[in-house]
Amino acid sequence: MFIEIESLKPEPFHVRHIFPAGEIQFSHEDAVLKEPVNTDFTLDHKDRDLHIAGTVETAIRFICSRCIKEFNKDISAEFDLSYMPQPEWSEENVEVELKYKDMEVAFYDGIAFDVNMMVLEQIELAMPMKFVCREDCKGLCYQCGADLNEGMCSCSSDKGDSRLSVLLDFMKKMDK
Ligand SMILES: [Zn+2]
Ligand SMILES: [Zn+2]
Predict the structure, then answer these.
(1) Do the beta carbons of residue 57 and residue 79 sit within 8 Å?
(2) Quick one: which of 135, 131, 139, 149 has its CA closest to 32?
(3) Is the dihedral of CA 113, 108, 102, 8 positive or negative?
């Protein structure tokens, strides 16, 4: 979805759009967009300088990095962004670019604004740092591959018990 700047009226422009899953070019090894992406935003502009504020909502199916089970997580982002046309390269404009970097202004071609790109960026920013089905996911046994969330497997419990009993013996001795 592109917004042609030429066609914008002076008034703020309200967009409510649902992208079907697959329309946003989301690519991750262990996460997929399964749900449509809802976006709702208002675009204000002063000539070709844009101000866009709104929300993005969707759900992502992740693969847990510990137990490799799939899980869904709702993703939502609120944004308030400024875009301006990419200045043509010149020494003077490099200074302009540096100045705007501090102000969190992004650039676009000044002709058509790529909504999909913005939506994708917002989804990426809202993604969790680590993909775990829950904070206390115990993961898989590195020996037999059993899911430790469903209970201890025999390899881990054997070792755990013996180590624990040695420790208990030791503590008993210390008591004496
Ligand atoms: Zn997990
Ligand atoms: Zn095991």
Answers:
(1) no
(2) 131
(3) negative
Please report, for residues 9, 28, 53, 122, the alpha-carbon distance to residue 57 in angstroms, rounded to integers and kept in the order given: 27, 18, 14, 9
**Residue 39 near residue 28 (C-beta atoms within 8 A):** no
Q: Closest ligand to 144 CA?
A: 2
Residue 148, token pair as written in the block? 């430790």
What pLDDT does 21 receive?
82
Q: Which ligand is nearest to the CA of 139?
A: 1
Token reading at 86:
């990419």
Q: How far is the CA of 131 from the centre of ligand 2 (A)?
A: 23
User: Quick one: which ligand is closest to 151's CA?
Assistant: 2
CA 169 to ligand 2 centroid distance, Å: 25
Which residues are found with C-beta within 5 Å of the ion, ligand 2? 141, 143-144, 146, 153, 155
Q: What CA–CA distance (Å, rounded) separates 84 from 47?
A: 10
Q: For residue 140, report the distance from its CA to the centre of ligand 2, in Å.
A: 8
Q: Whole-structure pTM over 0.90, yes or no?
A: no
> What's the mean pLDDT in 134-152?
93
